Amino acid sequence: MVIYHLWLLYRILHHPTKTVLGINTINRRIWVQTMMENTSKNGILAVQTLRNNIMASTLMATTAIMLSSVIAVLMTNSSLRGQDYALGGNSELGLSIKMFSILVCFLLSFLLYVQSIRYYSHANILINVPVGKIGLGTEYVSRAMNRGSYFWSLGLRAYYFSFPLIMWVFGAVPMVSCSFLMVFLLYFLDVYSGSDRREAVVTVEEMC
Fold first, then answer.
1. Distances from the Cα of 120 to the Cαs of 33, 39, 62, 177, in angstroms?
2. 131-175: per-residue pLDDT in tens?
């Protein structure tokens, strides 16, 4: 999965119109520009949209910290130490390492969603400032919103990484199988090959 995400990062940076994340970044920038062209008319819509994003990030952050608490309780439960799983055959140390890896994933996801809330909150205030009264224009606001979305995506990726680690508790074979399955599914979620890609390319050229 690490290799896949490095490949995905390369595609996003060099071929953004071929990835869903890249296209969404372009569209969010256009959306911010449209909202700020007439703040008196579009202000309520913009605030409600960002509020929905903040609520979604809050829900995911709450879920992540709750799962972290569950994993921490399992790690400190003496009755589970040294337990021999059917497929894993884990020692006490091996099981602790695996549970700690899962805990790190959920804690990282929590921190990423907190950062997402932070940037969405900044954008929520700045998006209603008239364009003529802000020194950096719409670019600064769209960058804040895109950063919030980036942290949202990274938080979700931390959730995705936890699935192979959970399967690792039961052994290496389930972990590898889950990793290949996750890469297969994520490829279809991340890569865009629609017929209207040419329109997205034209949009990028116009914005540049």
1. 16, 17, 17, 36
2. 666 556 788 889 999 999 999 999 999 999 999 999 988 888 999
Residue 104 near residue 96, CB atoms below 8 Å = no
Return the C-alpha torsion angle 49, 54, 56, 62, nearest 10: -170
Helix (H, G, I), strand (E, B) or coil at 191: strand
Measured at the CA of 192, the angle between CA 191 and CA 197, to 5 degrees, comes to 150
Report field, pTM of the whole predicted structure over 0.85: no
Contacts of 178 (CB under 8 A, 6+ apart): 163, 164, 167
Nearest C-alpha neighbor of 127 from the set 12, 7, 42: 42
Report if residue 80 sits inside a domain.
Answer: yes
- The number of folded domains in the chain is 1
